[in-house]
């Protein structure tokens, strides 16, 4: 160890790195890393520590310490670079260790320090190989140039390490530099991997023949490289070169690509699917059903089917024979990926899948029919709408989509008939469909549904009336529903009255703020706030003063944000001291529209609040209020703030105020 004098913690723990016990060495390295983090603001001290650790790392006797020294030096990071670079060119047994360390903490600019090592024909081949690998990790143009030079080295091992490093760096290498290496059996696979990053159409003619290579690993790498190449060529408008080459490929070649679907690596499977899409190989479709449980492959298959064009419907229909369970769901999703007309056969398959015993397949069928179906599917979807849970809801969504597409809301009357169901999932989903279609001519039926003996139907009818409009007795019916015995019906009714914003909704909603159920009171207050009527302010003030459930209070506070009255300003400023932080946040938001400087002062006080989200909202509101007197305190707060998200909001507010000056 050199004669640098380190503080006691470092001396103690570096000494423990030589312990014979693995646990003690691990404890010492962990303690050193903690001390390093505490000393980040003292780079000189960390450089001294790195100097000492590098001496230990380079010592021939320090075999047990090397792994721990390396770990701590990586933790020190770039501060260790200068003492490392002073040693790296010195020949010796430790040189390879230093090269490996530079690979982890260095930057592209440090590639030149490895140049002399990799080109030295007299250096240890393993050292040269480590230097080549390190160049791949450093990356950058300098590293790539050095590695390309190594491709002509007489050592096959060095050429292989150079190719692997170029692949790791995603370096763009001229195809001419790789042509001979592709022809050689030993370097073919590695060279094919580098070709994937070449972004050159010349690489296509080298890679496509490799799909027929005798070695399966070469075929796998060629497939992945072609996918990467196509992605790089697409922004240049040249990806069609890859597509044409694959469409010209023989049936045997495409068969070998399909075989890659059984590869152990998911990236290779994905590449095989992508290539079959580029080649318009419809024979891949039935094979894909077995791998679509994986989300990545699922998306890749859908993309492939989208590329098949007019061949897709027939290929998918052939794949559907005898398919059941999870594979049937995948088949249904594939139908949804077809571009253009899917044809009557596949629509019939989807309709049949609505009754599939595998629930996910039935739901998928309803979702796909929403896109590819037509008016002829409405009756079957109506029947499926009576199923409980997700399937009934998905069937309802599909009916909405198809009716909207046709523009004929009378289609709904044709399948429902004159007598609506009054209970069950079918009735509830029917209300939801009418609401989504905003069919106000069905408001009388919805009002009648408010009297259903089924709670879920009454809730659905109340929500739907809020969406279709207040005509045909909608507001009157909803006001009547405020007396319903179920709180969830009353809460839904309050929300709908708020959406309708009819003047006659005001008094019923004020009455609902006295409801015994907190959920109903909260919904009523929220609706009153949406109405934004000054006549509601007295009741909102009473709620703030008397309400015991603070979630209801929070809703009422929002309503006072538009009053701009002095008495409400005082009230909101007082609420900024509430022990309930949601109340404080609501008060801060409500202060946004008050012009008085006192509102600014109250918000500035919240910049010291213990909760980050309160400070975040206060900072945001200060930017909205455009009070330039807040600039200086905001600039001070951004320096003192330790939460990054709050700092960002503070900076945005400062910029907004500066622009307003």
Structural features, described:
- The protein is an all-alpha fold and 661 residues long.
- Among the domains are: 1-106, Leucine-rich Repeat Variant (Alpha Horseshoe), CATH 1.25.10; 431-535, Leucine-rich Repeat Variant (Alpha Horseshoe), CATH 1.25.10.10; 589-661, Leucine-rich Repeat Variant (Alpha Horseshoe), CATH 1.25.10.10.
- The protein is built from 41 helices and no strands.
- Helix 12 runs parallel beside helix 14 (216-233), helix 27 (424-437) packs parallel to helix 29 and helix 29 runs parallel beside helix 31.
- 45% of the residues are buried.
State the gist of this model.
With 661 residues, this protein is mainly α. The protein is built from 41 helices and no strands.
Search tags:
661 residues, Leucine-rich Repeat Variant, 41 helices, mainly alpha
C-alpha termini separation: 62 Å
Subunit arrangement of the protein: single chain
In the CATH hierarchy, the architecture of the domain at 1-106 is: Alpha Horseshoe
* CATH class bucket of the domain at 1-106: Mainly Alpha
Tally of strands = 0
Provide the low-confidence segments as ranges: none
> Which sheet architecture does the biggest sheet show?
none
Radius of gyration, taken over Cα atoms and rounded to an integer in Å: 35 Å
Indicate the mean pLDDT. Answer: 92
Overall geometry: flat
Number of helices: 41
CATH topology of the domain at 1-106: Leucine-rich Repeat Variant
Structural class: mainly alpha
| Range of strand content | under 5%
Helical content stands at 55-70%
